[in-house]
Design brief:
Length: about 675
C-alpha cells in the first residue's frame, strides 16, 4: 500500500460524510454533484484496491451485498405508541383541559410539528454508529430493516459531534412526492400495479428484501423523538429536536415552539393551507407539551402519551356520480375497470375518472352505475373511489358484472390462479397491439413523432401493422391512403420511423414493453450488456447480479428473450435495420475487439476506469468484473487487487497501462 493511502481514505470518508449532511440533511450543499461524485469515486476505487480498509460505516457501504431472505423481529426497548386524534379546535381545547386537570392550570409551551404521513421507524446508534433500524410493527415488536435504512442518504451512518454512547431516535420515513410520481410512471410503463399513495409506496419499499431496490426508490425521513439516550435526557421536546439536529440527524424545519394553544392553532391553520407546497404528504399536526418534567408527570395511557395529540386535517374527499364503468385493455392484456364520473373539483383539479383497480376491489366496494361515490385523491395523485353512499343508490342499479370476454376482441378472458387481474389472452388483440405500438413510439422509448392514438388505431384496425416490426415496412403510399392522412404527413411518418432505427438498445428494450422493465432497468441493462445479443446469452443470475436490478426484472427479461415469438420479433427488427446494440446510435465504432473480454484492475494514471471501459467498448470489446477462463485481456494498473494474481494463475494475457494504450492504437490501425 502506498504511504498515506489510509489517511487519504479516512479524509475522503470524513469529507463525503460532511457533504452528505450538507446536501441531504441541511439542504445546503457546498459543492456540485460532479465534485461530490469524484470524491465518492476516488473512495470506491481505493477501497476496491484495498479491501482491508473497508469499514461498515464507510459512505460507500450504504447498499450491502445479498438480498435478505426475511427480516428478524426486534422487540422495542420502549413500546412505540400511537397518538390520540382530534379533528377541530374544540377537541384540541379538551386535550388541554385534560392536561390541566392532571398537572394544574398553568401557561404551557407546546411544540407543533407536521404529522408526516409515512411509516414510523426507530434508529439505534451505539457510540455514534448506526447499528439498527426497526419498523414500528405492532408497537411492541417490529422488523429489523437495517440494510434498508442504511440506504437512506439523510440517515448518518456516523453521528456528528459528541454523541451519547447509546441513543435511540424515532421518526417517520416517507417517499417524496416527486419520487412517488416517477416510480409510478415507471411502474405503469413496466405494466406493474402503481402504488396508491406515497405512504403505501414507502411502506412497501421498507418491506423490500433487496436493499438495491430500496436505494433506488429514494426514501427520506424526519426524526422527531429521542426515545432513549445515554447521559442526561433533554429538558423538553424542543431541546430534543435541537440535539438531534446537532448530531446531524434530519429534523423537520417547520417545527415551531408555541406559547399557548392559540399559537398552536395558528400553526395548524397555516399548514392546512400550505400543505400542498410540501414535498411530502402530511395528515395533520402533532402537538406536544414541551416540558419533559410535565411529560413525565402526565405519563401514558396503554395506547398513547397523555402529553401529545394529533390534530388531523380532514381528508380531501368529494362526492360524485358514477356515469359508466368501462373496461380498459392494457399492453399485456390486463383488464382494468375504470369509473367515468360526473366531473368534480378535488384538491386543485377536476376529476372525471377513477380507477377501480380490478374486479375484486370493485366487487368488494360494490360500485354500480348510477351510484353516488366518495372519491379521494390517493396520496393526492391518483383519484380512487373510497366507498359508495348506499342511501343514494338509485332503484334498480344492477351489480357490475366482470366481462367474460375481452371487450375489444371478444376472446374469452382468463384469470390465472392466484392473480387478481383478468386478462385478454390474445396477443393479437387490437387493443393490446395498439397499446404496444403507442408504448414503442413513446418519446422516452423509440420516439416516433406523429404515431398517435388515432393513427395507431387505423394501422392496427386495418391489419396494416400487427407488431412493431411492421412499422418499418410501411410505405408512404400505403399511409397516404389512410383516412385524414395527407402525402406530406405520410412522408413525415416514414422519415420518423426510419430515424428511430438508430435509437439503440436502451430505448428499444424499454419500448418493447417487457413486464417490469421500466426506463431505469432498460438503462442499466443496456449499459452493462451493450447488445440484445449479449443480454440473450446471460443467465438469470448474471442479470440479477447487476447493481440495482432485482430478481423480478431479471426473471422477466430472461423469460421474454427465451420465448420464440419474441426472438422472431427481434430477428425481424434486426432484418429491417433496427439497431439492437447500445452506443452512439449505431453501436461500436470498430469491431477490432469483437468477442474479447477485458478485465480492469488497479488504478490507471492516464485515464479513469469509465474512460478505459468506453475505449474498449468503442472497439467492440466487453468489460467484465471478474477474471475467468473466458477473459481475453487483463489490464493491470497501479496497486492491482487479487484479480492480477488470478490472471497470472490462469496464464491470461496481462498488460500494463502502456501495453493497453498500445493495444488501443493497434486496434485503430487494423
Ligand atoms: S410523535 C408516542 N411526531 O404519527 C408517539 N409522530 O399517529 C409519538 N408521526 O406513530 C409520536 N409525524 O408514525 C410524532 N412529528 C411527529 C410525527 C409523528 C408523524 C406519526 C408516527 C406515529 C403516528 C401517530
Amino acid at each position: 500500500m502506498k504511504r498515506g493511502t489510509r489517511e487519504r481514505v479516512e479524509w475522503l470518508r470524513a469529507e463525503i460524510r460532511r457533504h452528505e449532511r450538507l446536501y441531504y440533511v441541511l439542504a445546503a450543499p457546498e459543492i456540485g454533484d460532479q465534485e461530490y461524485d469524484a470524491l465518492e469515486r476516488e473512495l470506491r476505487e481505493l477501497e476496491l484496491a484495498h479491501p482491508e480498509l473497508v469499514t461498515a460505516d464507510s459512505p460507500t457501504q450504504r447498499v450491502g451485498g445479498e438480498p435478505s431472505t426475511g427480516f428478524e423481529a426486534f422487540t422495542h426497548k420502549v413500546a412505540m405508541l400511537s397518538l390520540d386524534n382530534t379533528y377541530n379546535e374544540d377537541e384540541l381545547r379538551e386535550f388541554q383541559s385534560r392536561v390541566f386537570r392532571l398537572v394544574g392550570e398553568r401557561p404551557l409551551r407546546y411544540t407543533a410539528e407536521l404529522k408526516i404521513d409515512g411509516l414510523s421507524i426507530s434508529l439505534h446508534y451505539e457510540r455514534g454508529r448506526l447499528v439498527r433500524g426497526v419498523t414500528r410493527g405492532d408497537g411492541v415488536r417490529g422488523d429489523d430493516v437495517t440494510p434498508n435504512v442504511r440506504t437512506i442518504r439523510s440517515v448518518p451512518l456516523v453521528l456528528q459531534g459528541e454523541a451519547p454512547d447509546e441513543l435511540e431516535v424515532r421518526g417517520e420515513v416517507y417517499l417524496p412526492r416527486s419520487r412517488f410520481e416517477a416510480i409510478n410512471r415507471e411502474r405503469e410503463a413496466a405494466d406493474e400495479e402503481p402504488f396508491a399513495n406515497p405512504r403505501n409506496a414507502a411502506a412497501g419499499t421498507m418491506k423490500t428484501l433487496d436493499a438495491k431496490v430500496v436505494a433506488q426508490r429514494g426514501l427520506d425521513l424526519f426524526l422527531y423523538q429521542i426515545a432513549h439516550q445515554g447521559g442526561a435526557a433533554p429538558r423538553g421536546q424542543w431541546q430534543a429536536l435541537e440535539r438531534m439536529r446537532g448530531w446531524g440527524l434530519r429534523t423537520n424545519p417547520t417545527s415551531r415552539l408555541c406559547d399557548g394553544l392559540d399559537a398552536v392553532l395558528a400553526f395548524c391553520a397555516e399548514w392546512q393551507v400550505k400543505r400542498d407546497s410540501l414535498e411530502y404528504d402530511i395528515d395533520g399536526v402533532v402537538v406536544k407539551v414541551d416540558d419533559a418534567a410535565l411529560q413525565a408527570e402526565l405519563g401514558f395511557t396503554s395506547k398513547s402519551p397523555r402529553w401529545a395529540i394529533a390534530y388531523k386535517y380532514p381528508a380531501r374527499q368529494a362526492a360524485t356520480v358514477v356515469e359508466s364503468i368501462v373496461v380498459q385493455v392494457g399492453r399485456t392484456g390486463r383488464l382494468t375497470p375504470v369509473a367515468n364520473l360526473r366531473p368534480v373539483a378535488l384538491a386543485g383539479s377536476t376529476v372525471a375518472r377513477a380507477t377501480l383497480h380490478n374486479e375484486e376491489e370493485l366487487a368488494r366496494k360494490d360500485v354500480r352505475v348510477g351510484d353516488t361515490v366518495l372519491i379521494e385523491k390517493g396520496g393526492d395523485v391518483i383519484p380512487k373511489v373510497v366507498r359508495v353512499v348506499p342511501e343514494k343508490r338509485p332503484r334498480g342499479a344492477a351489480a357490475w358484472q366482470a366481462p367474460t370476454t375481452c371487450p375489444v376482441c371478444g376472446t374469452p378472458a382468463v384469470k390465472p390462479e392466484g392473480e387478481v387481474d383478468r386478462r385478454c389472452p390474445n396477443p393479437s388483440c387490437p387493443a393490446q397491439v395498439e397499446e404496444r405500438l403507442l408504448h414503442f413510439a413513446r418519446r422516452d422509448a423509440m420516439d416516433i413523432e406523429g404515431l398517435g392514438e388515432s393513427l395507431v388505431a387505423q394501422l392496427a384496425g386495418g391489419g396494416l401493422v400487427r407488431d412493431v416490426s411492421d412499422l418499418y415496412r410501411l410505405t408512404a403510399a400505403q399511409l397516404a391512403e389512410l383516412e385524414r392522412f395527407g402525402e406530406k404527413s405520410a412522408a413525415n411518418l416514414v422519415a420518423q420511423v426510419e430515424a428511430s432505427k438508430g435509437r439503440g438498445m436502451r430505448r428499444l428494450l424499454f419500448g418493447l414493453g417487457i413486464r417490469f422493465v421500466g426506463e431505469r432497468a432498460a438503462m442499466l441493462l443496456s449499459r452493462h450488456f451493450r447488445s440484445f445479443d449479449a443480454l440473450s446469452r446471460a443467465s438469470v443470475e448474471e442479470i440479477d447480479d447487476l447493481y440495482e436490478i432485482g430478481p423480478a426484472v431479471a426473471q422477466s427479461v430472461h423469460d421474454w428473450l427465451a420465448q420464440e415469438p419474441n426472438r422472431a420479433l427481434l430477428a425481424r427488427l434486426e432484418q429491417v435495420g433496427v439497431s439492437t446494440v447500445e452506443g452512439e446510435g449505431q453501436g461500436p465504432a470498430s469491431a477490432a475487439f469483437q468477442g474479447q473480454q477485458f478485465v480492469l484492475t488497479g488504478t490507471l494514471a492516464g485515464l479513469t476506469r469509465d474512460q478505459a471501459r468506453a475505449e474498449i467498448e468503442r472497439r467492440g470489446g466487453r468489460v467484465t468484473s471478474s477474471v475467468s477462463k473466458k477473459t481475453s485481456v487483463v489490464v493491470v494498473g497501479a496497486e492491482p487487487g487479487s484479480k492480477a494474481d488470478k490472471a497470472a494463475e490462469l496464464k491470461l494475457k496481462v498488460v500494463d497501462e502502456a501495453g493497453f494504450l498500445a493495444l488501443l492504437a493497434e486496434a485503430d490501425r487494423s
